[in-house]
Amino acid sequence: MAGHWRTRVGVVSAGVMLASTLGACGSGSAATGTPTLNWYINPDNGGQAAIAASCSEASNGAYAIETSILPSQAAAQREQLMRRLAGNDTSIDLMSLDPVFVPETSEAGFLAPIPDDLKQTLSDGVVQGAVQAATWKGELVAAPFWANTQLLWYRKSVAEAAGLDMTKPITWQQLIDAAKAEGTAIGVQGTRAESMTVWVNALITSAGGKVIENPDAKGPDIELGLDSEAGRAAAKVMEQITAAGVAGPGIDNRDESATANLFQQDGADFMVNWPFVYAQGKSAAEGGTMDQAIFDDYGWALYPQVTAGQESAPPLGGIDVGVSAFSEHREAAFEAVQCIVSQENQAAYMLSDGNPAALEAVYDDPKVKQEFPMADTIRQSLQQAAPRPQTAYYNEVSQGIQDRWQPVSGVTDATPGASSTFIGEVLRGEKLL
User: Fold this and answer.
1) Which CATH architecture best describes the domain 151-315+390-427?
2) What's the whole-model pTM score?
3) Positive or negative, the Cα torsion across 101, 104, 108, 114?
4) pLDDT value at position 75?
């Protein structure tokens, strides 16, 4: 999952000062002769810190990794890292990056180039979407660590009652018709946030289009693919969901968590969401806050198709690990990266924190298969998944989509063109977000 942001330069937060203090304390290694690598991580359940400790021990004194936790929202993570990297901060060695930040971070010269002999090592066996998301201008610039994707979740009993064959690809139109027939809703994320960009991008790419046609271009020269047949097909899906009355309550304020809760509380019997919903439902059933029979009725399938017979392009998320261009311990940092993203550690992280691995081989691990009965579906979804628009101007593009494709009830066939015009004006400096 990813957060959202409004400006390229914001107000320095208390978190920035805290991280500066932590970084300054961790870079010295003269006394021991062992370089200390500072790894800035997104908040999780402790899995990255455990990997840091394990890799430190396995290095036999080659390095020691200390972790510093970034803010919970992706936007604030980006702000903190960009501010410090812009100041050539040498206390950052490793950083966990949302894939949407990779092009901007690389374009700014903030990522140390991956040695040629490591590029294949870090990409072999990795799902293609994750490799693509970690690549900028034809070069792998960060190491894929874990790769998230959205699935179609459903109540097995309701799908059966609606006559849906969930062993075959399902279209958005079939879902809408089934939800209407059964008097239920489809859980989607309609709030004005990064989740809206995730949805719009998935619909457009599933329809065979692209949000950006020339990702390497400078802002004013970017060609947008929003005002297109694929863009209008995406808008039609949103129109039909609201017109059929299957949007469910509060669609314009629903993020991933709210959608998961709606599905869990039987407010929607179909939903598109990340795999965390399975662990959440399991925990609720075991804790007695949800009937076990409801959890036993959970089903999952690949992301819906926009056009029947045309393979869907599910959302792609996750985390990549980058080495700072200003690290004073680059060689040790790249050694650490290899340990962090190893098959063993990706499997351990998936089991400890529930985040899907980027390496395909992890999905054959018996422990992973036992803990994640939908592992094969996640792997297939990741094989089909498409990254969000790769551009150094992601902030402007994403925020422009959020502003013009929301509220969902206001989306029409004119929305793709209106959003394209607005984003173009922003990129040319004619309007502000």
Assistant:
1) 3-Layer(aba) Sandwich (3.40)
2) 0.90
3) positive
4) 82
